[in-house]
Design brief:
This protein is about 65% helix and about 0% strand. The protein is mainly α. The longest helix has 18 residues.
Length: about 180
């Protein structure tokens, strides 16, 4: 395969976002460590894990807001064409206002009812909102709080000052409004 075709198949491999994405996962995992060297990474929603890695990779590689929007266009092609079908209600259900995340359980099972890539693109849009509200440190602190024994729900309340179930309708409405305008705008 020539480099141009390869870049079209997996642009992240050539623009640096793939490496940055995986590096963010390393930081997330290390921040979710308990003092006993147990990792509680799996006790966080997959949209948070993958969305943060996606968003942080795009932001770290982009040299401007225009570049960031261009990366979103590359990374969210399906979402861009299907965005009107993602209503506030659909996004709220996806974000799951009352997740039950348990030790040694398949905590990704709930999200198998949705198209797989939504944990990346809708997740990244949710992270974009949370980061705008409180900054990237607050989002990363969710991992540390869970690593210290909090549930995701407790950590969210602690970091954002609102219950997760109360925040989801606002986050969902903001994402739906953005998608209505077009994810690439």
């Amino acid at each position: 395969m020539n480099p141009s075709d390869a870049a079209n198949q997996n642009p992240g491999q050539f623009n640096g976002t793939q490496i940055a994405h995986e590096y963010v996962h390393t930081i997330q995992i290390l921040n979710s460590r308990m003092p006993q060297n147990l990792f509680r990474y799996a006790l966080l929603p997959p949209w948070l894990q993958e969305g943060q890695a996606m968003w942080a990779a795009q932001v770290s590689v982009a040299s401007s807001y225009v570049d960031y929007l261009a990366l979103r266009k590359i990374d969210y092609p399906e979402l861009a064409t299907m965005s009107p079908s993602y209503s506030t209600e659909w996004i709220s259900k996806f974000l799951n206002p009352n997740p039950i995340l348990l030790e040694n359980a398949d905590n990704w099972a709930y999200w198998t009812q949705f198209p797989n890539y939504r944990i990346y693109d809708i997740g990244a849009l949710a992270i974009e909102i949370l980061t705008c509200l409180k900054g990237p440190t607050a989002v990363m602190k969710l991992y540390a709080d869970v690593g210290l024994g909090d549930t995701f729900i407790q950590a969210f309340q602690k970091e954002f000052g609102i219950s997760y179930s109360d925040a989801v309708p606002y986050i969902s409405a903001a994402i739906a409004a953005e998608l209505k305008l077009g994810v690439n705008s």
